[in-house]
Amino acid sequence: MSAGSARSGASRVQTRSGYDDRAATVDGALWRQAVDTLEANWEVDHTVPSRTLYPHQWSWDSAFIAIGLARVRPDRAWRELRSLFAAQWSDGRVPHIVFNPRLRPGDYFPGPEMWASTDAPGASELATSGIIQPPVHALAAERLWRLTGTSEAAAELARLYPRLVAQQRYLARRRDVGGGGLVCLVHPWESGLDNSPAWDAPLDRVPADAAVMRTYRRHDTRFVADSHRPTDLDYARYLALVSSYRERGYADDDLAGRHPFLVECPLFNALTAAAEHALAAIAPVVGADPGPHRARARALTAAIVDRLYEPASGTFRPRDLRTGTLVAPRTVLGLGPLILPELPAEQVRAVLAEACSPRFGLAERMSRPLPSHDRTAPDFEPLRYWRGPSWINTGWLVWRGLREHDRPALAAGLRDSMLDLVGRSGCHEYFHPETGAGLGSPAFSWTAALTLDLLQTP
């Protein structure tokens, strides 16, 4: 199946009971595959990313999933967000995993016994992780409102808005470790791009005994080849960072003095600013003032340009706060600021040049998918998680940025490429950046959800 057929098909779709079948101008088979994936992964009050690798609820996954569910089951989309924010901590953080208490211990690693979150001051009563993920949730809520606009949606928005504000307040007040107005990450998992080459140098100084892995049983390599996943040494360092943060009750005071991994990420911060733009759009609906959100978005955008843009290379890069330097690898993280509507013209041109270069291959007619890492780099790995493969969620974010900055031909080329991937290989977690073969989990929820959004957006 080609992306062209996904654009031009005209069959109505007979979906499972309860799903909207208004997709009269999309490819029926592709639409049905995406809908059935979401239906199969629904779990009482949320959607699991996959039934094998990820059996709990993940934070930014739920936001992307809600965007897709808005097209077919708005009721479930709102429930997805309600379920996630029910686990919000008192300081406003939204944990990156909410654990399902119905699953047996050991069904996922590292599980709730490793995080011990309920012992931390101000934590949720639910078992969660102690770290965060990119704040895509306000974008999802705004999209839900725009697609429905009902009185029920307005009531949902009114309930969710203060929680979204608290999430942003946490990021602004507790995570500005560098003092420059940006959010600092304390773990690679917080970026969402878990083992991106961008984190190699900051991780190198994290002390870790690889023997620690012999006391744990990894869950992921039961389902996916070792060569596709982070190494045991990577995991040992990940666990060392979890332990460092957990032992201090996940407190954010004095991070600069004690935590070994401190990084400002361009994609995470761009999504934080984009969330403020979304909240500015939501605010009038709930009777709030949009002005502070607009001001915060402008300040974040300026800080991203000031602290993370490198004029010599014309790229955005993460900043390692331990060394005060920008990291060397050129990854898809550097394309993230394109989503910002107020990104200055100079930086828009620079991001587009980077995206259209041989490193990433964006074009009006793309011969290969958008990779997660510079495909010309010597450490490009087409099979290993986030070190080369193509992902629908990062492609979708770049596509949003192209539309934001009025690049319709490039946006159409990227959209066609993503739909072609799913049409040929299914709703996989990620894809080979050269061949387009499906990799990771074969029934992945955010791939299905964002496919629905792509199909319904001209």
Description:
It contains 17 helices and twelve strands. The chain has 458 residues and is mostly helical. The chain has one domain: Glycosyltransferase. The strands form five sheets. Strands 5-6-9-10 form a four-stranded antiparallel beta sheet. Strands 1-2 form a two-stranded antiparallel ribbon. It is globular and about 50 Å long. The two termini are 19 Å apart. The N terminus is likely disordered.
Protein traits:
6-hairpin_glycosidase_sf, mainly alpha, 6hp_glycosidase-like_sf, single chain, glycosidase, 12 strands, hydrolase, Glycoside_hydrolase_63
Terminus-to-terminus distance? 19 Å
Largest sheet: 4 strands, antiparallel
Radius of gyration: 20 Å
What count of helical segments does DSSP give? 17
Q: Overall 3D geometry? A: globular
Q: How are the elements arranged and paired?
A:
Blueprint: H1 3-8, H2 28-40, E1 42-43, E2 46-47, E3 57-58, H3 59-69, H4 74-85, E4 97-98, H5 112-115, H6 137-148, H7 151-174, E5 184-185, H8 188-191, H9 200-204, H10 232-246, H11 255-258, E6 263-264, H12 266-282, H13 291-308, E7 309-310, E8 315-316, E9 319-320, E10 325-326, H14 345-356, H15 392-404, H16 408-425, E11 430-431, E12 438-439, H17 445-455
Helix pairs in contact: 2-17, 3-4, 3-6, 3-17, 4-6, 4-7, 6-7, 6-12, 7-12, 12-13, 15-16, 16-17
